[in-house]
Amino acid sequence: MITCHAFRANLRPGSSEPELLEHLRHCDACLDHAVGVDPDFLFRSIGGEELVPPGGVDAFTHDVMQQLHVRTTETRLAHRVLSWPRRLAVAATIAAAMTGAAVVWQHDENAKAPMQPMASATTTKRATPAAVVASLTTKPVVETYDSKNATIVEVPSEGANDVKVVMIFDEQLPADL
Amino acid sequence: MKTRNSLIASLLILLVCGAAFANPPAEKEKSLSVRTFQFKYKDADKAAAIIKPLMSAEGSMSMQGATNALVVTDHAENMKAIANALAQFDSAAQTFRLSVRLVAAGRGEPAGKVPEDLRDVAPNLAMLRFTTFEKLGDAEFEGKEGDAGMLEMPTGYRADFHFGEYDPASDSIRVSDLRVSRLTGAQRDQLTQLLKTTLNLKLGQTVILGAAKAPQSQRSLMIVVVAHR
Questions:
Q1: How far is CA B36 from CA B49, B76, B84, in A?
Q2: Quick one: average pLDDT of A3-32?
Q3: Statement: residue A55 has pLDDT above 60
Q4: Chain B residue closest to A97 (CA)?
Q5: How far apart are CA A48 and CA B51, in angstroms?
Q6: Which residues pair with B190 in a beta bridge?
Q7: Which pLDDT tens digit goes with each residue over A96-145?
Q8: What is the ipTM of this complex?
Q9: Which of chain B's termini has less CB crowding within 10 Å, N or C?
Q10: Quick one: CA torsion of B55, B59, B60, B66, rounded to 10 degrees?
């Protein structure tokens, strides 16, 4: 086996001389030195001539890198594109959330708005139909008055059946009514 | 297997959600219903005025003059009240009583003694700063819907009117063309009309209709009216 000095003196990039490769297999310090000169010495040192991939190391590295890119792209796309069962599951979740929100909102609306009708409904059960409808509407006492210049004032009363006072002020009325 | 189960679960959720949106119970309750009412005793156009205050914003009606009918569209809960009101409205002419009291109310004089039969309305008149009350007469008339009535007071006052339709929705009777007149002249042979009006009187409620030239007038004519069955 040649000496380390002789090895380093004869070492050239791409060299495949048997005595150089033999030295590489036994000397780690020279292996580090040789890889620094030409990385292919790493392969040559472990397997010799027969371990060089078909088409050369560059083609092999290119293929490996290409496969690596393909896998990376596949993984990235697999994360972004959802399968249709997953899409359906997402749609179902959104629909369920919307339904829940709508039901809650409607419940709130029903709780607020129908308080008045509920009271009326209770009255309906207790009172006669005539009394029920009577409570629903009121009419002005004075429907028409035969003078356009008159002022009609309806004095509000506390109860629905209290005495109602309505005053008509009309300049055309005689003073000695 | 796991995918299939999740698919079935998702489809079930979507179906339930779709059903919930398609047929919510609240919408079902709010659906409109249509009903035709045909009248035997009363006119359909007058019935329309009766039920108008009972209808919702979504409600509508159309008259069929040839058959004296009214087609009403409204929510089911409103339709019950409308049907009740129309059932009471379309009845044979009902009898009502109208009692009228005429009172001359004055201001500026010391408070006098309130006549016994005006004590029920004196507090209301006092609120209008009237201090003296003079009864000008009272009378009562009994008649049916559509009847013409006339009340005469010994003091020369007179009231002419027509009983209109009873409105079950407001439990009131319409007293139309109420003309209050007074006999004037040396011989008291000239009838002078003082006022003409149409009133809606809620049954059993006392209404004081005051008439004066101006709010600060010293004298007012108070017409105290009550309608009863």
A1: 16, 13, 13
A2: 86
A3: yes
A4: B17
A5: 108
A6: B184
A7: 999 888 888 877 666 554 433 333 333 333 333 444 444 456 788 999 99
A8: 0.75
A9: N
A10: -70
How far off is chain B from A76, nearest CA to CA, in Å? 22
Domains and CATH numbers, chain B: 29-92 (3.30.1370.120), 95-228 (no CATH)
Token pair recorded at residue A97: 């959330």
- Residues on chain A touching B14 (C-beta within 8 angstroms): 88, 91-92, 95
- Closest-CA residue in chain B for A177? B221
Q: Which of B189, B201, B202, B193 is nearest to B221 (CA)?
A: B193
pLDDT over 80 (residue A147):
yes
Confidence bin at A81 (pLDDT 50/70/90): low
Predicted local confidence at residue A164, as pLDDT: 92
Q: So what's the pLDDT on residue A120? A: 32
pLDDT per residue as tens digits for the range B123-174: 888 888 889 999 999 999 999 999 999 999 999 999 999 999 888 888 999 9
**Chain B contact present for A29, CB below 8 A:** no
Residues B168, A133: C-beta atoms closer than 8 Å: yes
Tell me the sheet residues that pair with B57.
Answer: none
Mention every residue, 6+ apart, whose C-beta is less than 8 A from residue A110.
B26
In contact, B55 and B48? CB cutoff 8 Å:
no
> Quick one: DSSP state of residue A4?
H
Smallest Cα–Cα separation from B67: which of B48, B35, B44? B44
User: A89: which DSSP letter?
Assistant: H
Contact A89 B6 (CB under 8 A): yes
Q: Does the beta-carbon distance from A130 to B20 stay under 8 Å?
A: no
